[in-house]
Amino acid sequence: MVRSTVLVAALVLAVLAGQVAADGHETDPAVLQADEITHDSQSGITTALGSVTLTTRGYVLEADSLVYDRPGDRVTASGGVVVVDSEGQTLHSDRIEVTGDLREGVIEGIRLLLSNGARLAASRAERSDGRITVMERAVYSPCELCPDDPDDLPVWQLRARSVSHDEETRDITYRDVTLEVFGIPVAYSPFMRHPDPTVERRTGFLVPNYGRSSTLGAYVRMPYYIELSPARDLTVTPIITREEGPVLSAEYRELMATGDILVEGSVAHAKARHNSGRLKGGRDTRWHLKANGLWMADSRTHLGADVHRSSDDSYLSRFGISSLDTLVSDAFVEHFDGRSYAGASGYLYQGLRPIDDPGQIPLVAPLLTYSYLTPPSKTGSTASVDSSLLVLTRSDGTDSRRFSTGVAWQAPFLTTDGQHFSTRISLRGDAYHASDVPLADRKQSGFVSRFIPEGLVEWRYPFARMSDTSHQLLEPMAMVVWSPNGGNPRNIPNEDGQDFEFDEVNLFSTNRFPGLDRVEGGLRINYGLRLGQYGHDSGHYELFLGQAWRARDDSTFDESQGLSGHFSDYVGRLQINPFPYFDMLYRFRMSDEFKSLYRSELGVNVGTDDANLELSYVRLDEETDPIIYPLRERAQINTGAVFRLIDNWTLTGSWRGDVDRGESVLYGSTLAYRDECVEMSLSGERRFTRAMDYNPETVIIFRIRLATLG
Questions:
Q1: Which of 245, 463, 554, 682 has the greatest CB tally within 10 Å of its CB?
Q2: At a CB cut-off of 8 Å and minimum separation 6, what does 431 contact?
């Protein structure tokens, strides 16, 4: 019979897709195609035979035959039934029979391919009450089947006597369910329930983690997730450890239209210990809290706060929460307006090192800052204003209050032959009120002020040459800076200029000290040379070498920092990237006579995504900082390797060692498997760090995650 296309009444759509409203009015039509379509007006039965295709509302149904019994309010599709929805999910069945309102129905021989690649098969599915579908003798797996042997068993699958889906509660319930791995039963439960794939979040248990360490012993983490609202949730994680007892951890998250909040913390009733690690009997309550929040009053005004505290110095490290040695809490508000910025903040610190004295740790509040940069003029020049107010207090030590303001003008200039000049003139004034400032033989308190004029001229002259395969660059550069000598009176405390390191990054800084408390003075010249060759397709080589000269010695710098004499140490870097799978960076600081290396940093990366090796080496010379503490000469090596093995297996390893002492600091390895349906890993790590009650330990962790199940 000639194939025909017929636009059927909306009643057929109602039968197969529930498209008739309660008042009986028609909605969307459907298109039915078949080799033969007949209708018996006496019996009210419509029959479609041969290559039946029904298209409606994003669904396509194909079958050998379709029968609509209007008086019985029932539709039956049979013979190679295939249903495809708009999301790409495909249903195969031997026979489908449903009522016109879709409240009752039976599907025989169901095989379902979901849009995420998961598969579900059952001998029979029955729909009742218009919302509950029950599948008998069902098998579910998200694992892809072997293309060479589709009958081969998947990596894992769930096999259940029955599976029911409640569309109203959006729950999937299993009865007599067994987890099979490569066809071998490994776990059984008489009952299991989880939300269906349409549910993004739902209160319930998450996947547990198992591990073992020489410090905590065997432990298990059992996270429980609580959905408080669409924008708020809470995860409570009891942790059971063999050596230290139970630990309770929690994380709260909230997302708002104008910001977000994250609060996490833990508490343990653990064995009481001295700072040396020796047990002192009984138990102590130990805890930590970490929270941060950000709010946007409008697009230009932000408010935020961070809280990070711990009950004692070693809790975070002992329980594997964090390796930080300083915890920072702060609060801030900031406002952006065109080319200006204003901010107010405060900082509270907690030191976790054995040498930290709580009385010497400062409270910084408030810290007020303001900056403004004018738009560039026609010649490119700009002017700027920077001001700040700082109040710093200690319970036992130096207190200081500082007001600083400065103005600057700078302008670039480019010559016709490619020379680039930049000039800058600035004036800054600082006013301090400090108390208990330690001097050589006494402590001093009172007011002190200073004015720091400064001028500079910077010059760069790049020479470039092109070829068919690469281009070369030679760029000499120099900077002449002048400011008065002696800009650091002894009674100005050094609070924000202690973390100092001379390298090629800050060689061309006018003030290499961070912060404002310490400044460089006198006439000085910074100069350097950059050489480079850059291949068009591959090959990248670059060398930079530079030095600083000053007209007179400056006792502001310690001799070990490389800047105290007329000529500074040389600083530089060497980058080598001859082909895509090799990259090396070497940074150094050496004496002005090229005789001694004071700092060496080497980083090498070799390999592809399938096999990769990273190596870094750091060597620092002995330093004596009168403000902090002396540091011995030290050298350390870090290595890491990643190997992607066959069949989704990955092996990673790392090692960190103290070269001078000939000792390992840390080493570990992870064997992991990952495919579309399962992720699992076995990790082992040995740490040799020793501090207070935190001793060297070995940690072994096993993790597994089944796709779509957590």
A1: 554
A2: 402, 403, 404, 447, 448, 449
